[in-house]
Specification:
It contains 15 helices and 2 strands. The protein has about 350 residues and is an all-alpha fold. The protein has one domain. A two-stranded antiparallel ribbon has the order 1-2. A hairpin with a 5-residue loop joins strand 1 and strand 2. Helix 4 packs across helix 8.
Length: about 350
């Protein structure tokens, strides 16, 4: 089955590369700078596949079995625009104009001929590519888990990441609702880990696709518990109910409860490090309690980016922005630690 899928996938890449990418880059006189046409074709197919699954599978599920029923979906429109802009423009450009030169600079990328990373350290993996990919994925996902915890713990990073959490109507479009500086920082960290492990560009693209699809699904407004699909369902994969707990509004009566479920695809890290939250309560309302961050819901795409950058710089340029802990943003957008605010009352 895997060989059948691989054969047709490679055939589609070859066809798109020969009939669309090559003529386009030559017509624009950018063939030398564009890199391998097959990689461009593969990125385009990945974006098309992701959009198809979001729009034609996940979005209908939200109508059939919604976790929350909304009178209108007004707040989801900007998230849809973020997704379209990211998949059809910004991410491909960033990948080929920034990430690939970054990989070449560090000695990785498609021109590398010698085995590197895990293949160099453990040659046995050369004969076991599927197991090697599984190891790649676990390391990739574990790094994401700790990076995600840092996004919540470091005030200047939360100043950017909070925009993603401000959404009151979380949906299948919400995964790409993020500050672009935050996205660049994440991409460099994950790409650096991929290079250190010796991940090939095609393998890294597959890592990214699998992660993005699971995240699109885990953000979906669907009342679906993976535990119903099998005894271990919610212990093996991050699903909508598990991730919804991560996005829930803070409860003043239980101030640490929201610090949960940081996993991207695998909930194992939350289980291992004590941050997993499973419960049978009604679906949690999503969003943030900080009025400054909640105001993102009334802003357009460009205004959201601008206000998030202002929050970031105000936190980054002061001492409080480097002290870990939950914060809100007060006068001048300076971070105010919840612990300090509580002790002052």
């Amino acid at each position: 089955m895997l060989s059948f899928i691989s054969h047709h996938w490679n055939g589609a890449i070859d066809w798109l590369s020969a009939n669309a990418v090559v003529p386009l880059v030559h017509g624009l006189h950018i063939a030398d700078a564009a890199g391998d046409p097959r990689e461009i074709a593969e990125a385009a197919l990945i974006a098309a596949l992701q959009l198809f699954l979001i729009a034609c599978v996940m979005r209908p599920l939200e109508n059939l079995i919604p976790a929350e029923r909304w009178a209108d979906r007004r707040h989801t429109t900007v998230d849809r625009n973020y997704t379209l802009l990211m998949l059809l423009g910004l991410f491909p450009l960033f990948s080929f104009l920034v990430l690939m030169p970054f990989a070449q600079l560090l000695g990785g990328g498609p021109s590398t001929e010698q085995a590197s990373g895990l293949k160099a350290w453990f040659p046995w993996f050369e004969q076991h590519p599927y197991l090697l990919f599984a190891v790649y994925y676990m390391v990739y996902d574990c790094v994401y888990y700790w990076m995600h915890r840092a996004q919540h713990a470091i005030p200047w990073w939360w100043a950017m990441h909070s925009m993603h959490h401000s959404q009151r109507q979380m949906s299948c479009w919400s995964n790409d609702r993020s500050n672009y500086l935050d996205g660049m920082l994440q991409s460099f960290i994950l790409a650096g880990v991929g290079l250190a492990m010796g991940v090939e560009p095609s393998e890294f693209a597959l890592l990214g696709l699998l992660s993005e699809l699971v995240q699109n699904f885990s953000h979906a407004n669907v009342a679906l518990r993976l535990g119903r699909l099998g005894k271990l369902g919610e212990r093996l994969l991050v699903g909508p109910r598990f991730h919804r707990n991560h996005h829930m509004l803070r409860d003043p009566a239980r101030p640490t409860r929201h610090q949960c479920n940081f996993g991207q695809v695998l909930p194992w890290w939350d289980q291992l490090f004590g941050t997993a939250l499973y419960h049978d309560e009604a679906p949690a309302a999503t969003g943030v309690g900080d009025p400054e961050v909640d105001a993102d819901n009334e802003r357009g795409l460009i205004a959201m980016q601008w206000h998030t950058l202002r929050r970031f710089w105000a936190a980054f340029s002061c001492r409080a922005g480097w002290r870990p802990g939950d914060v809100s943003f007060g006068p001048g957008l300076r971070p105010i630690h919840d612990a300090d605010a509580g002790s002052a009352q």
